[in-house]
Design goal:
The complex is a heterodimer of chains A (269) and B (468). In chain A, 44% of the residues are buried. In chain A, 58% of the residues lie in helices and 0% in strands. In chain B, the strands form 4 sheets. Chain B has a 6-stranded mixed beta sheet. Chain B has a 3-stranded antiparallel beta sheet with strand order 7-9-10. In chain B, strands 8-11 form a two-stranded antiparallel sheet. Chain B starts with a helix and ends with a strand. In chain B, 34% of the residues are buried. Classes of the chains: A mainly alpha (269), B alpha+beta (468). Chains A and B meet through α4 and α6 of A and α3 and β5 of B. Chain B: Keywords: ATP-binding, Kinase, Nucleotide-binding, Serine/threonine-protein kinase, Transferase. Chain B: Its EC number is 2.7.11.22.
Amino acid sequence: MSHLSNPLATAEQLFKSANNPLPIELLDSIRFYTARLTQAAGILLCLPQDITAQANVLLFRYWLVDDVMRHEFSDLSAAVVYLTAKISASPRSLRSITNVYAYLLSESSALSGTPVPEPDPQSYYLSEGTYVTRRNKLLHIEGQILNALGFNTHVALPHPLAITYLQTMDVFISPRTGKAVAKRAIEYLNAALLSPQMLYLTHQPASLATAAIYLAARDKGVKLPDCEWWEVSDVREVVNKQEGISNGDGEKEDEEAEMSRMLDEKVVD
Amino acid sequence: MSTKQKSRWADDEEDAVLEAQRKKEKEEKKRAKAEKQRRADEAAALRAAELQGEAAAVADSSNNNTELSSRPAKRRRISPEIEGVKVELPPAKLLRFPSPEWKKCRSVEDYEKLNDIEEGAYGWVSRAKDSRTGNVVALKRLKMDNANDGIPVTGLREIQTLMDCEHPNIVALQEVVVGEDTSKIENIFLVLDFLEHDLKTLLEDMSEPFLTSEIKTLLHQLTSGVSYLHQNWILHRDLKTSNLLLNNRGVLKIADFGMARYFGDPPPKMTQLVVTLWYRAPELLLGAERYGTPVDMWSIGCIFGELLTKEPLLQGKNEVDELSKIFELCGIPTEETWPGFKRLPNARSLRLPQNPVSQGSVLRAKFPFLTKAGSQLLIDLLALNPGKRPSAQEVLEHAFFREEPRMKSAEMFPTFPSKAGQEKRRRRGTPNAPMRGNVPEIKATDFSGIFAGREDEEKGGGFSLKLI
């Protein structure tokens, strides 16, 4: 069961984080840009996507316990990547992680805007002294993250579920469209990781996978079974535009998924 | 005497008929009553369902005006309905996911220390009381290594795997608490179930080994715990008697997940430096990088042997000695019994006798009092070829557990004075689990000496050793 389910945010936690004195737009930007930074670091560190995804989920979970302004965002992102990779099958050294973040935060970074500037190695050189300082900072934050999460680092991801659901619905009978739908569904799921709506904290993987398939099939014009196929994946269908963040018991929230699509486009750009 | 006679006189045929009739009437009344109750229940359920349906329909109608409030409960659909062919299905039973939360660690100050239990290679354990609830728990402190890589990964893995486990034969991790000063997370404590004994200390202090029925109880519980772990893709990798806890109600729990990790199919590359030497499977000793659940099954075999004799089965002094003790007990592998073993990294320096026909397993001879099923189980668990070892599930269904003497029920298990609860325990030299770090190079472990001593003994006996 633990492979399919996640701990979910409590109403109190969500309420507290929404009541932050910072403007909501700023909070949203912080969440989005930090998650994007984590994603970029994951790519540069050649981490498997599931580890990067888990790191982002843990990052958002942390922010529901400790104040957003408590640590520098980039340090927090680096620490959570280090922690997630460490307990996985593909750990990364602190040296590699600090190097990657030094690059991503420099002016030469591909994230700094378009057009991508000529790389200037001077701007992201990490001296031994700076490295030691950064490393100690990361290790300190690692402890803080674990403390805030009660040492619960378990994250179940919807990605493999989405593929399994597509397989059971025989979508791969036509390899070309099957692949396209699967790809789009995974894109939705990855984009939702960056969403400041924190979908991964309020919905179980089964709901996320189902919503992603629904949207992906609609995008690609692929016909899914006429019956209530989502019931097989234990998802109740409720389209409820009025409700914002839901009570998190496995509902399909079109609005939120739409949101993630918008974000998806933003990332692709 | 008189009463007997009296009853005999009274119980004539007429009486019997009357009695039967009365009984019949009574039964009929009972049936009628039950029927009435059942109908009432059904009606109540129907009413409740109707009410619910109406409520749902009302709720629906606020969103969707086409729905009539008088219609019975029905799932709303979004996808366009195909007229006519639609078959009404009962509402689906959806799986409810448990959704625990996450919150900040509590402080260790919430617990009151009672006494130390032991200090292992991996951290120390003490008995403590939750000051709020009064529950007695075991507090295990994570050892922080001084290396600059933060909180040790072994500790994090232990926490991760234990948190995901929920089984009567696996020690439960209630929570993780930290030291009072949270500006630096250095003191980390696992709050675990407290159990009175560990099997190792218990065996050391017993004058006679466990009875067969008791061994079955213990082995069955151990195997069901391991079966749960394997089903959840967790390898324990350090099963041994000192990691098996027993409470005074006869329940065994597997503890110490410091070496545990998740695995996959196909198995990922993992370090061979796992499992305490005396319980380490031959494929690990031979340096296999890809291994799986059979390494835990081997350890179960070693524990089975230990329960029978009270003495650890294979007490090697080092890797080479351990392997030679294994071959002495279980025979020498051949290309037929264990295909491909010669390609394992450390097998290259292994010198094996050329005709190992006479070198079969001596397990049956070593345990003459074991039944046929029992010794077969032991031999299967201690199969050199990991592929031949039974799975945990297969062991649970083994004939050994079905034959006499049956398993003693946990409630009937004898109790013992608890060392952990009262006094400092005596320690005996068991080798510790291997420390994390660099795996010694293959060449560094020299297996050439295994049969060196025998060469002299066997001189002239038609027994030759060959360098492979």
